[in-house]
Amino acid sequence: xxxxxxxxxxxxxxxxxxxxxxxxxxxxxxxxxxxxxxxxxxxxxxxxxxxxxxxxxxxxxxxxxxxxxxxxxxxxxxxxxxxxxxxxxxxxxxxxxxxxxxxxxxxxxxxxxxxxxxxxxxxxxxxxxxxxxxxxxxxxxxxxxxxxxxxxxxxxxxxxxxxxxxxxxxxxxxxxxxxxxxxxxxxxxxxxxxxxxxxxxxxxxxxxxxxxxxxxxxxxxxxxxxxxxxxxxxxxxxxxxxxxxxxxxxxxxxxxxxxxxxxxxxxxxxxxxxxxxxxxxxxxxxxxxxxxxxxxxxxxxxxxxxxxxxxxxxxxxxxxxxxxxxxxxxxxxxxxxxxxxxxxxxxxxxxxxxxxxxxxxxxxxxxxxxxxxxxxxxxxxxxxxxxxxxxxxxxxxxxxxxxxxxxxxxxxxxxxxxxxxxxxxxxxxxxxxxxxxxxxxxxxxxx
Length: 447
Description:
By secondary structure, this protein is of the alpha+beta class. It has helices spanning 11-23, 40-44, 63-73, 89-97, 107-114, 116-125, 141-151, 174-192, 249-265, 297-304, 308-316, 396-409, 419-426, 429-433, 440-444; strands at 4-7, 27-33, 47-52, 77-79, 101-102, 155-163, 166-171, 197-201, 207-215, 221-233, 236-242, 271-278, 284-290, 333-340, 342-343, 349-350, 353-354, 357-359, 366-370, 377-378, 385-393, 411-413.
């Protein structure tokens, strides 16, 4: 097992990784930008190293600084969390060349699946259906217009190295392709350091279903069921739950087997997530694979009882999967609400500033993953998500009622947050009935 892990990230995921590492008896190193020197992950880690100035390009995306921090502190492994460098094959390769274990898949696996265009080709190779789209990267604006016309509108412009809703836009005509391509490329470069783009058919009113997988270094692989991530705004997930009420056992098995088939086929040796669109006829289409831990891994942990972060660390250290597919059982229902420092009444404008008062909700079946505290200064330079509120119930009805209660108790003052907006969704008749598709938020806001 590792003696010391450097966490190449910030915020709630850095805190989450530190907690699992501590339970495994592993020392931790936090890295931070000048803007994050008072952050919770810096306080909780055994050591902390400043790796640059405020902007992510000068700190959390600065590979030489991160490697130097690992070498100075004698960390034998690096956990990238999600976002930033978590799906950067060059970073994984550089870690390996410096004798530092990258807690994630191999650089080769990231190339095959972290790059969205290559991932689609890989899925097709293993007989998994994909959404219609470009076979290769789109190089120019004119090429994007031509390909969109061939695919048929509406289309989705997507960053090949993207994630978290960044670098993604729907285009309904040529004018929107031209305008949105520039926006997507700028977002992708700012967030991932790569502005490669591709285009796929936009499927109307689908469910966004993802399958959690785990593979080890010995060819073993399992899936942990699905998460329904259909409630999104601008392709950024807001509410996730497990299991999905649209999946019966047959469809769950088919989608799970598809995901495991690819996982084994590419010798994937970490945790990962396969994202699918499921249409109204229950046809499913592979979109992409996230070769990292997901923000919403929490709901899967609650319905399976498996600690995904611990498992990821142990696999990276060379341990075998300790759970067989037949032993994976889904029990109860879990819901996660992402708490963002945004003002829904002002078109979700980010709300940076000082948190003057913070009382997290609690009680049976309530979990908080967050890095904030009273007196914490929310920076305008990073993602606006400041925490995740997760609940578990015996069934979906109980989970919804528990989430209502937990949202009512969750007090954050000093900045605008999305908690009241999320609370309204919990009372919505369509949400309660499970009539939830990727356009849910757009329709909800028109009510």
